[in-house]
Amino acid sequence: MASLFESFWQYLITNFSDFQLATIATFIVHESVFFLSGLPSIVFERLGLFSKYKIQKKINSPGSHERCILRLILYHTCVNLPVMIVSYPTFKYMGLKTSLPLPPWSVVLPQILFYFILEDFVFYWGHRVLHTKWLYKHVHCIHHEYATPFGLTSEYAHPAEILFLGFATILGPALTGPHLFTLWLWMILRVLETVEAHSGYHFPWSPSNFLPLYGGADFHDYHHRLLYTKSGNYASTFVYMDWLFGTDQGYRRLKALEKERKESEQN
After folding, report:
1. Residue 246 CA: distances (Å) to CA of 122, 202, 210, 243, 257
2. 192 is in which domain, residue-wise?
3. How many domains does the chain have?
4. Cβ contacts of residue 37 below 8 Å, gap of 6+?
5. pTM above 0.90, yes or no
6. For the chain, what is the HEC assignment?
7. Membrane-spanning regions, if any (predicted)?
8. 22 near 84, Cβ under 8 Å?
9. Is 211 left (phi over 0), alpha (psi -120 to 50) or beta?
């Protein structure tokens, strides 16, 4: 398997330039992973599948689904892709590599973990700033148009917010100058994480049921269905930042009440 993958990578670096791989190919990888992972929650809503696992009972209309998809295509093409192109010299300067051999997992995994921790920290504070009155009204309210989120709403946001919070995602790789393979893996995992958090479904197999400190869909869905001044749960991936700074108190009270209600029903 490793040799097969390296043969594929050899094909990429032989037939495409570093610039093409770091920009166009990266964009294609992102779009593929994002839409393939985000579309199922729309299908679930429209067909009424897995309704027992849906966190909110409200169903988004087909029109709202279509509006989200069309705007995402516009934002990704007119904002994300140009940013990838413009930021290429910076990544190249910081040491982005495409050559073989591919980095060992002993290098890749610590870098990915570092990216998740750094991104979560920066995102938390940036997200709290976006929930101040003026920025929420003029910028962040776009993302909150969907009080009942579905997977694709994870990247539905004002262009200014895409740039502002996108900084948290690219900061780690920009600092470490990773191999392009590591950058792609980080992007894939981050996309899958944020799509799951916005999916609107909490399944028995959801990562938050198994990974300590992981927020997931139930944690973030609470953030979407409350008013901007009372929402809390600002972190992107983990729960400890909100716990440390007391911005998850409403969510914890709700969980405690739900637990008490379930226990009383069983007795």
Report:
1. 17, 24, 23, 5, 18
2. 2-266
3. 1
4. 151, 191, 192, 195, 196
5. yes
6. CHHHHHHHHHHHHHHCCHHHHHHHHHHHHHHHHHHHHHHHHHHHHHHCCCHHHECCCCCCCHHHHHHHHHHHHHHHHHHHHHHHHHHHHHHHHCCCECCCCCCCHHHHHHHHHHHHHHHHHHHHHHHHHHCCHHHHHHCHHHHHHCCCCCHHHHHCCCHHHHHHHHHHHHHHHHHHCCEHHHHHHHHHHHHHHHHHHCCCECCCCCHHHCCCCECHHHHHHHHHCCCCCCCCCCCCCECHHHHHCCCCHHHHHHHHHHHHHHHHHHC
7. 20-47, 68-88, 108-126, 162-189
8. yes
9. beta
C-alpha closest to that of 97 among 189, 10, 15, 182: 182
Per DSSP, what are the bridge partners of residue 179? 97
Partnered with residue 221 across adjacent β-strands are: none
Query: By C-alpha distance, which of 160, 80, 174 is closest to 118?
Result: 174
